[in-house]
Amino acid sequence: MEEAATTARRIGGNDADRTRALIGVATQMFDIDRARVWEALLEAVKAANSVSEFTGEDAQIVARLQTGGGTSTSSSSANDFDLPGIFSSVAREDLYRSIELAKGFNSDAPRATATLAIAKAVRDRL
Fold first, then answer.
1. Which of 11, 20, 61, 117 could cross-link with 87 by S-S, CB 3.0 to 4.6 Å?
2. Is the pLDDT of residue 84 over 90?
């Protein structure tokens, strides 16, 4: 996980993919080391605050195959790199801490995405 986090940090500071990569690390870390997932998410929030176009729910994996006969491109969503999954998980772990973390987003879109994920996790618990 440390190597993945180090690789994510190498992505330019104003690139939304850095934030997505840090969220991916936090998502995987949730099952391995729940104490450190909060640190990873805090780092992702800080990275998101440096990128104006980050929404928290638009991660995609794009594959492009180029041959002499042409180019083929395909894309698919990558939920492990989006906010709803990880914020749902941490909300079930510590509701108030997840709410405070969501408040840390400067932009409306990721804050709303995280808040809605937390609300859904609470609703699903009832």
1. 117
2. yes
